[in-house]
Amino acid sequence: MFDENVEKLKEWLSEKRTIQELKAMAKNLGLKVKRMMKKKEVIKLLESYIKQNEEIKKLERPSSSTSASDSIKKEDKLSKEELYLPKSYNKNKLVLMPVNPNWLHAYWDYTKETFETLNKLPKEYRIVLRIYDVTFIEFTGNNAHRTFEIRITPNMRNYYINVPIPNADYLAEIGYITPDGNFYSLIRSNVCKTPPNSPSNSTREKWLDLRKKRKIVTPSDGVLVKEVETIPGSIFKIEEIQNKSEQIWELFSKLRSGRGI
Length: 261
Known about the structure:
This is Rho termination factor N-terminal domain-containing protein. It is a single chain. This protein is of the alpha+beta class. 35% of the residues lie in helices and 24% in strands. The chain folds into two domains: 1-84, no CATH class; 93-193, Immunoglobulin-like (Sandwich), CATH 2.60.40.10. A hairpin with a 4-residue loop joins strand 9 and strand 10. The radius of gyration is 41 Å and the shape is elongated.
């Protein structure tokens, strides 16, 4: 219906019209017509009206029914396609992540060359994942506080590691050990810090202002409820021991007299 009206307006405008007819048509279409406008100006006004409506028609979206059917078709195509993740991204990469104070998670990947090197190693060689405790040191390869070693295979891609010390810095390497006991590193990970397993004794609170993108450090008021401790040998501790001994003696006397409990 819209297209028909525009086409009719075009045909009507192609015929010779008086300025009065042109102004009357423009007013009927809701266009602003000035008294002093010339015939050519009114024609241009009507032509611009036709052009705008044609552009709007081109930009109109398809109906909801057609768009819904198109989306269903796209979903069907996606479901039919085989979507999968690659087994390898062909990169030498070893990542160490904290899980909790006593556990780390390591995952890794190899290039084709590294993978072939590991597969071609003689049986006497051992492929290992090494974990180093590098807390407060700059690691040089042989100066770690402690070293933990886990034997792995070339097809393995991740491992969960139990570490003994929380709140410590750890670093990992994948390599192989020769029969002589020499270790050759192939991949090195990032430095990973495990969280502490107890409340912090810091007297400062650290906040992050997301809007201004800056850190804010303020004095801490400490825990809201302080723990009440009993001093060994205090009068309160003695009274507690006396009460328990009196209860035991009362129970013993009842059993001795034969009255029962």
